[in-house]
Design goal:
heterotrimer; A mainly alpha; B mainly alpha; C mainly alpha; A: elongated; B: Serine Threonine Protein Phosphatase 5, Tetratricopeptide repeat; 14 helices
């Protein structure tokens, strides 16, 4: 009897059970499904300032983003937005060239040349990141 | 005693066949999924179905089991390059051979291509000049490709003109690319900047971004007009005049910068077309 | 008796030998992959399952089915967060599933992933095609998912009907019907009303929706621009005001109207999601 029992138990232990879905019968991950996303407040662009000009500009940027830009309904065609672009370009190119770059960006922000840029599928906006000016000459280390 | 005897015989009858049944199949059809044959089978399947990321560990295992097999090494390099990891291919080839200048010719091809894809042009030029097994025209051909990719086009032209007579194959290879590269249109950033300085936004018309140029013209002109109205009415103390005047100037300056940038980007795009052509005809065709 | 014990131990020894001789066979590979998935290493698990899936055709094994491997590969993608891929693999597993229980589990898993991706129409399509599962647990999940899908499509009456069916005891019935009544009543910051209010006075719609900060902000900006416009009219001329200030004024005026609607919509969503969480808690508490 004992022999037969051990044989049966040994054989049974080889076969697997039917597939189990522990994650199917838990509803925990569905609980936050309809919670609306929190509006953006922390702007990484305004961080890491190296001098007073950048600090001042970042302060202006934060005031603009929180109190002025938040009150109009429209959106920039590009990502990052024109104000973020301005702060980033000044940080990369210095005040004068950075500002000139930003005003050029404002004129380009007309949405009439979608063929020139690549649309980011996540944000639905066109990617256009400021570069250091000399980088626009073709170099072997950039695409 | 009788009972024990009976039990013994019956147990043996049950025991022996069951042992046979359990042990024999595994001995007859031992399915070691990680042995040489099976790994090769699976690796070939993965390469055929373009699952290069999964193929790499299989090929590495195969290479470990028989390091002398050339085809495994070639497949491994192919998997690394196709998986978008040419640096790893370079490192692996350097690890396979202690003297890189005398590796077999097909492997040298892989090595050079990996170097070019991972943009290590200096190393590639060194390798081309030191490697012994390239024939004369192959050496020149590889050097011209490297020069094109590393933006040293003038050197490529000189090499081409110098060797065209000596090696007819060079002429055949590069005729199209050389002709295409000589006919690309270039826009001078200096001209674009100067144009925008004298007539606002005209530089952008010159480089082909006429929509941006038009926007720039409207913004600069509109703000300038408003500034003019302000100054006209109140003289130099007009607040509106100063505000719109500086806005207009900012857009004007931005436009000069933008025109230079636009010309540079235009040239980059033209160069990129030729470099893509070189990459597609000479590197990506394996 | 001693002999019997000896024999049984001998048999076990042979069984062990038989198994260890095939140490790197298909079954042990799948076991290994299972253990990697349990240890939260989905990449390693996926490559092992993929390997097993390839060798299943070379060495057919009765214990391992195609469906099982596909479903486990789907699990790997689920763990790495690639829901689209997971849905694809579950769909393939459904086609070769051995029995109805497994098939229904797989379909329900697919529906759950559609819900997590907020593809409510796809989820609903699967739910409407699916037969009523025989197991009570699966039936319950189907009702819950139907409720969530209709909730996501903002059809709260249909959602309520499904959620109501989940009540088992009397107290839960009362609780759920109370929650659903509250859900149907949520109409308060009406986006249209908020927009119309903001048309009359900038910021009023935001106040109505209960957002003081944005209301004040909008009021100050549009008020300031309005004052600037008047100033320009008095100091310069009408045309200057229209040219210089009007574009900015309309930008923030219309933006404020749009924002009032958005804020009201956000508040509505917030309230509904709070009730939704309570419904899910009520549904969950009686389950396990």
């Amino acid at each position: 009897m004992r022999l037969i029992c051990t044989i049966i138990i040994s054989l049974l232990s080889i076969f697997q059970g039917s597939p189990v879905f522990p994650q199917l019968y838990q509803t925990g991950d569905l609980k936050e499904l309809f919670t609306p996303p929190h509006p953006e407040t922390g702007f990484t662009t305004a961080k890491d300032n190296r001098n007073e000009i950048e600090l001042f500009l970042s302060g202006l940027f934060l005031v603009y983003k929180n109190f002025i830009s938040s009150q109009d309904g429209s959106h920039c065609t590009f990502s990052p937005s024109c104000s973020e672009y301005c702060v980033q370009s000044v940080k990369k190119n210095g005040l004068l060239i950075g500002l000139a770059d930003s005003f050029d960006r404002l004129t380009r922000c007309n949405g009439m040349s979608p063929e020139k840029y690549i649309r980011n599928p996540e944000t639905g906006l066109f990617d256009d990141v400021p570069e250091i000016f000399n980088r626009y000459i073709y170099k072997t280390d950039i695409q | 005693m009788n009972i024990y005897k009976y039990l013994l015989i019956s147990s043996l009858l049950l025991f022996l066949p069951s042992c046979f049944l359990t042990l024999m199949p595994s001995l007859l059809f031992a399915q070691d999924l990680y042995n040489n044959t099976n790994t090769l089978l699976y690796a070939n399947h993965l390469m055929r179905t373009h699952q290069y990321g999964l193929a790499i560990p299989e090929l590495e295992r195969l290479h470990f089991m028989n390091p002398a097999d050339d085809s495994v090494q070639y497949n491994l390099m192919r998997a690394y390059i196709k998986n978008g990891n040419p640096h790893a291919a370079v490192q692996r080839i350097e690890a396979f051979y202690c003297n890189i200048d005398s590796i077999p010719l097909p492997m040298a091809d892989f090595y050079l291509k990996s170097l070019l894809i991972s943009k290590e042009y200096g190393k590639a030029l060194d390798f081309i000049s030191l490697y012994g097994n390239f024939s004369g025209d192959e050496k020149i051909k590889n050097r011209i490709i490297t020069c094109f990719l590393s933006d040293a086009w003038k050197e490529a032209y000189t090499l081409y003109d110098f060797n065209r007579e000596k090696y007819p194959s060079i002429g055949r290879y590069f005729e199209n690319v050389i002709n295409d590269s000589k006919t690309i249109i270039k826009k001078s950033p200096f001209v674009a900047g100067m144009l925008s300085t004298f007539i606002p936004a005209s530089g952008k018309f010159y480089t082909g971004d006429w929509k941006d140029g038009l926007t720039g013209l409207i913004l600069t002109g509109g703000f300038a007009y408003q500034s003019y109205r302000g100054f006209h009415k109140k003289g130099a103390s007009s607040v509106l005049g100063w505000v719109f005047g500086s806005a207009s100037f900012a857009f004007y300056a931005g436009n000069i910068y933008g025109s230079v940038k636009s010309a540079r980007l235009f040239n980059n795009k033209q160069k990129k077309i030729i470099i893509d052509e070189v990459e597609h005809t000479f590197i990506k065709s394996f | 008796m001693k002999l019997n014990i000896l024999l049984s131990n001998l048999f076990n020894l042979f069984l062990f030998l038989a198994l260890s001789a095939r140490a790197q066979d298909l079954v042990s590979l799948v076991r290994f992959a299972d253990s990697r998935l349990d240890a939260n290493d989905p990449d390693e698990a996926f490559s092992s399952f993929n390997r097993a899936f390839f060798f299943l055709e070379v060495y057919p094994a009765t214990e391992i089915t195609k469906s099982y491997l596909l479903h486990r590969m789907g699990d790997c993608h689920f763990k790495t967060g690639k829901f689209g891929e997971a849905i694809r693999y579950y769909g393939l597993a459904v086609k070769s599933a051995g029995n109805d229980t497994v098939r229904n589990d797989l379909v329900l898993m697919k529906i759950k992933l559609y819900l997590l991706q907020k593809d409510f129409y796809f989820a609903l399509e699967e739910l409407l095609i699916m037969d009523t599962p025989p197991l009570p647990d699966q039936r319950k999940m189907k009702e819950i998912f139907s409720g969530i899908a209709w909730f996501g499509l903002e059809n709260f009456d249909s959602a309520g009907a499904y959620f109501n069916r989940l009540a088992e005891t009397d107290s839960q019935k009362v609780l759920l019907s109370d929650l659903l009544k509250r859900l149907r009543k949520i109409k308060h910051p009406n986006p249209n009303v908020a927009q119309i209010l903001s048309i009359f006075l900038p910021g009023l719609g935001q106040f109505y929706a209960g957002d003081l900060k944005n209301g004040l902000n909008s009021l100050i900006i549009t008020g300031g621009l309005f004052a600037l416009g008047i100033n320009v009219v008095l100091n310069y001329s009408w045309i200057d005001a229209i040219l210089a200030v009007m574009p900015w004024y309309q930008r923030y005026y219309l933006g404020g109207v749009q924002n009032a609607g958005n804020i009201a919509r956000y508040r509505l969503e917030e309230k509904r999601s709070r009730i939704y969480k309570e419904i899910m808690a009520a549904v969950d508490s009686k389950k396990h």
